[in-house]
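Suppose a colleague, Dr. K., hands you the sequence of a protein chain of 364 amino acids and asks what its three-dimensional shape might be. Before reaching for any lab equipment, you can write down a predicted structure in token form. Begin with the sequence itself:
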Amino acid sequence: MRVTSTHADEALARLHAVVPAGGAGTRLWPLSRAARPKFLLDLTGTGRSLLQGTVDRLRPLVGDRLVVVTGAAHERAVRRQLPGVAQVLAEPAPRDSMAAIGWAAAVLERQDPDALVGSFAADHVVLQDEEFQAAVREAAAVAATGLLVTVGIEPTGPATGFGYVAAGAALDGFPTARAVREFVEKPDATRAAAYVASGDYRWNAGMFVVGATRLLDLLAEHHPELAEGLRAVAADPGSLERRWPGLERIAIDHAVAEPAAAAGQVAMVPGPFLWEDVGDFAALASLRPRRPGTVTVLGEEDRVVVEDSSGLVVTGDRTVALVGVDDVVVVDTGDAVLVTSLARAQDVKAAVERLKRSGRGGLT
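The predicted structure, expressed as tokens, is then:
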């Protein structure tokens, strides 16, 4: 059956956006902390936090059909940033992405048995909204046929920090959708280069679109106790504190996407838009275009003095002077200063772990 624009419109009318807002973003320490995670920060210079930017991007698709799932510690801040979002679910403790997304799906299933859910992380950046919205529109139409759909990001290079989606045959009746052969864990550099060269692999950005009931039924096939627990919490919100600690902690990729792909139940819609998960300071620097040999400044530029240097500076209350250093990262937050290089940005997490072990948890 060839899917028409009418079918696509009908599918989009059933779509509810789920925005998981969790994680501390430890590789962005000391800018991002457990009490002030990266999704609450304006890292793009737009005056909007990453969370607000995500919701802004989704509203043209779903209107008010939005559910944000966050930790109890951040519920107040989330509600303050998103006063127009009625449904904010607060997890008593982190249980990974399957519990967060599955809980929202279970709530929506009770509100609308025909609901489609699209999960989009609160701390990612998309730079081409129209292309993003076109991909989600097609993904909703595919999901309306009963498949689990992921939006696969067009690789800009052989990155080793992302998982990959292996695309199979094209799906009849859809402009770009393809079957998914498998999900692949983060590869080494050689395999990543081969994946990109083949043209059949996309980055796995964790964007999923699927029927709410279909998602929970797929989960019940492989993790029945988790599916039952999530549906029980949705049916009886008063049981949340009692049931939540006993729920299995697992990512949606491992719980549902990988086994469903092995069974031929997953499709992929290519995402031909610029995307960044802002996983470290090198990624953050890439969001701010700069000429080679210059410094990108987040904050007050008049606090930075540069002589023959390049890199990224996040300013605090002090003046930062760079002299003769290349690709440096300096982050000043008043109570902490980070100095590293763009090449070692992924290693910031190790410093945070050392701070925790030393008992200086107030800084993390």
